[in-house]
Amino acid sequence: MEKKISIIIPCYNVEAYLDRCFESLIHQTLGFEQIELIFVNDASTDGTLNKLTALESRYPDNIIIINFTENRRQGTARNAALEYASAPYIGYVDSDDWVEPSMFEKMIAAIETHDCDFVECRWDLARDEKHKSPVKKLGKPGYLDLSNTLVKQEFIGVQIGLTALWNKVFKKSFLIENDIFCPEQIRYEDIFFCYLAFLYAKSYYRIDEELYHYFVNPVGTVQSRSQEYQFDKMDIALGFLQTCRERGLTKEYKDAIEWMFLEKYYVYMLWEVFKEFPERSYSCYLQMKETIYELVPDYKTNPYRSFEGNEFDHVMLNLLDYPLDEKTFLGLRDEMLRKMG
Q1: 283-317: string of b/e by CB count within 10 Å (b at 16+)?
Q2: CA pair distance 334, 329, nearest whole angstrom
Q3: Which residues neighbour 159 within 8 Å (Cβ) at sequence distance 6 or greater?
Q4: pLDDT tens track for 113-131
Q5: Is 158 helix (H, G, I), strand (E, B) or coil?
Q6: 69 by DSSP, 3-state: which?
Q7: What is the pLDDT of residues 162-173, one digit of tens each?
Q8: Cβ count within 10 A of residue 324
């Protein structure tokens, strides 16, 4: 039977969480017969592969296992799985998370009804099945015609910080035709992927329901804020900017691309440095400033800066405008942490 959706699930040492994730997928109201699950075992060292192999033997018509013998990270896993996907729609689930039973029925109904490039839903942060914290709503629910310049501008302004893959479903043809992929051997690959999708998308639908449960894993990549790999975000932003320029996307989306770069490379990252790497604050600031002056010299006049209307963004960007010595800069940093931290 042809499947409606291929769901890609990277796995690394998730033996303890895999059953919960799988149970939420097998009981989808869409019907499990409509679903193809592509698990990528990223060289796990626990019992993850044994569990996956057992599931594949029970459900050979629904499950594909890709086994890496060396750890290649989520970007490689997601790219490899997309090549195996047979369904017209692509979803992503992290293997320590779980979803509501109606998630993919509702997501596919929306993407088919509105014939849009991708859809997304809301999510919550969950410590377990009973303790969940809803995430603040961002943007109006419903359909957006992203071929409209003003609509696209507002959409990017809202979505710029929402770069998870796991709360979205895409048309496979949209991803393939626009060569939307994950960078490999680097963390935070979903930023790059989603930013390309935001630029290329002509239509979109937002579902105003919390259908995805994001597990707040205390040892997960996102929760380990003070690890050196957090600086991968800067490399991701640089790679995104370079890719957009190589593809000629700056002809149509120059302001949006440069704003997305500024937000991720500088605004969000410098604030993270303030909190998690305070001893490196000034050196990072100088490095970022030099790069921005070289690559995005007209950052002051970017129209998204006024469109955003975010006081925090303005304060952070204003730090670029002056030749601040270290003492003055650190004083400003400490004041910002007191007021906004």
Answers
A1: ebbeebbebbeebbeebeebebbeebeeeebeebb
A2: 9
A3: 138, 139, 194, 198
A4: 999 999 999 999 998 888 8
A5: helix
A6: coil
A7: 899 999 999 999
A8: 18
